[in-house]
């Protein structure tokens, strides 16, 4: 389950505070599974419009996928959303401090990787060169 802001749906109950950070741009970093075996590189190309977040991502070192799309929200200094590719969905939550993002992931629907959880860290200004335009 995601933390932070609720996405879409409209109607009351959205306690999302206005963003205090901008995450638009290219981010790169690393991820590590809690299984202690899987780890690798990652990059995001993000576009933030108010609280809405969208973009693309690339993952290296995963036995289940190599990239896809990003959708979510930015509330205060917190990001919550999902990474998707075909039938794969991985929920993410992160805190942004300056040009650094640190967070967690939960592979909700990811074939053999379903149920995997872990952490990731990325810095703004890193190349998102693995993401095709």
How would you describe this protein?
- The chain is mainly beta and 133 residues long.
- It is built from no helices and 8 strands.
- The chain has a single domain, classed as Quinohemoprotein amine dehydrogenase alpha subunit, domain 2 (Lipocalin), CATH 2.40.128.
- An 8-stranded antiparallel β-barrel has the order 1-2-3-4-5-6-7-8.
Question: Strand-residue fraction?
Answer: over 45%
What is the helix/strand order?
Answer: EEEEEEEE
Please state the second-level CATH architecture. Answer: Beta Barrel
Continuous helix count: 0
Which whole number gives the mean pLDDT?
87
What is the helix content?
under 10%
Q: Write out the strand line-up for the largest beta sheet, numbering strands in chain order.
A: 1-2-3-4-5-6-7-8
CATH topology: Lipocalin
CATH level-four homologous superfamily name: Quinohemoprotein amine dehydrogenase alpha subunit, domain 2
Please, what is the oligomeric state? single chain
Rg over CA atoms, rounded to whole Å, is 14 Å
What is the count of β-strands? Answer: 8
Domain module count: 1
Low-confidence blocks of residues: 1-13, 128-133
**Given the helix and strand composition, which structural class is it?**
mainly beta
């Amino acid at each position: 389950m995601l933390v932070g802001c609720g996405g879409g749906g409209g109607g009351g109950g959205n306690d999302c505070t206005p963003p205090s950070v901008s995450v638009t741009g290219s981010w790169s970093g690393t991820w590590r599974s809690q299984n202690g075996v899987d780890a690798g590189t990652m990059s995001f190309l993000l576009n933030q419009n108010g609280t809405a977040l969208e973009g693309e991502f690339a993952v290296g070192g995963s036995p289940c996928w190599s990239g896809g799309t990003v959708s979510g929200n930015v509330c205060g200094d917190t990001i919550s959303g999902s990474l998707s590719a075909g039938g794969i969905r991985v929920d993410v939550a992160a805190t942004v401090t300056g040009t650094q993002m640190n967070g967690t992931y939960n592979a909700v629907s990811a074939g053999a990787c379903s149920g995997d959880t872990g952490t990731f860290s990325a810095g703004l200004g890193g190349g998102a060169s693995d993401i095709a335009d």
